[in-house]
Q: What sequence folds into this?
């Protein structure tokens, strides 16, 4: 499947991209994150942030209703980044803690929680944005 996406700046400094609600969109989201962080000189955050955006996109692909999602990468501070995934579902994601370790899915938000300074959900009338913030060590 070919992933067709559009990209445009959303302000200074920020990037956003509308993507199909498909598993292949995670790769495009990772590329957007890598590009933004490289341009902003935040290369030390690339690995963790690409992992976080992969988990957020995966959740949106699994739980949203419409055929597209939106990925937003912004820079709330000189040493930080905020990634968000917007979808049309109003279901708030919940962390799943599986003490047995035999659950194959549902642990992504535990990983997001471990890698980020903070994360959360902004509800809209028509859906939500799940976001996460990461910072370089001072």
A:
């Amino acid at each position: 499947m070919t992933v067709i996406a559009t990209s445009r700046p959303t302000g200074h400094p920020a990037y956003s991209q509308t993507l199909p609600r498909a598993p292949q969109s995670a790769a495009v989201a990772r590329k957007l994150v890598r590009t933004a962080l490289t341009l902003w000189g935040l290369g030390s955050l690339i690995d963790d942030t690409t992992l976080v955006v992969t988990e957020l996109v995966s959740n949106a692909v699994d739980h949203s209703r419409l055929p597209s999602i939106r990925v937003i990468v912004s820079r709330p501070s000189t040493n930080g980044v905020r990634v968000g995934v917007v979808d049309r579902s109003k279901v708030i994601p919940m962390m799943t803690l599986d003490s047995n370790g035999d659950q194959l899915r549902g642990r992504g938000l535990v990983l997001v929680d471990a890698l980020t300074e903070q994360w959360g959900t902004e509800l809209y009338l028509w859906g939500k944005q799940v976001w996460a913030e990461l910072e370089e060590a001072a």
